[in-house]
Amino acid sequence: MPKSRHRNEAANQFVAEAPVAFVSGESGEPHYFGHRERLRERFLLGGTEAMPDYELLELALCTAIPRRDVKPLAKALLSRFGTFADAIAAPRERLLEVKGIGDAAVTHLKVIHAAALRLSKTKVLHRPALSAWSALIDYCTAAMARSPHEEFRVLFLDRKNALIADEVQGQGTVDHTPVYPREILKRALELSASAIILVHNHPSGDPTPSRADIEMTREIVAAAKALRIAVHDHLVVGRGGIASFKALGIM
Questions:
Q1: Which of 113, 128, 150, 190 is the most exposed place for a label (fewest CB within 10 A)?
Q2: Are residues 189 and 109 in the same domain?
Q3: 52: domain range?
């Protein structure tokens, strides 16, 4: 069979099998092409404020899935995870559980999430942490509030209270993370840090400090004091907000 005839027959078969809903007008273009263009125009004119979460997710998915109507997939993601932020922050394995989403789309969403975290971190890195407190809170929330497991991070500050390093010191289960004060202070000395801010998350969503949190914090504060390293605060991050030990009068 001639190659040209074979190609024509294959093309005819593809058109015959294509769902009718995916074709619009005489141009034969999928119906969602015009919808995507309108979404892009609205985004360029008004930014994210002009769009609900499912439309923003549509735009995010368009690049990874260029030849399919992604509105149902965007709505499925929101139905599963709740918000745009929750969707892009969801663990890779949970995203893959959603019917219709593949590796390319998940990777694209995780790149967007990583970019958002990088931007948030840039706002606090090498800046006085205490004078950029709201930006610091935003970064900690973005980095930790949606994690399914507890993690403990330390923000290391120089003599001017500028953030010089942000490091995860431990990761654990849904309700426990092993913390070693000696390792935290050893790292502070290596970085020549003059102060630290402790941060950990509660995957349950409730940021209320536990008795174990309080005892562990007091142990770190006492050890740091002996080395003349200040502990400015301990923040507990949850979906319900952030609890500050200093604001609560615990330290």
A1: 190
A2: no
A3: 3-118
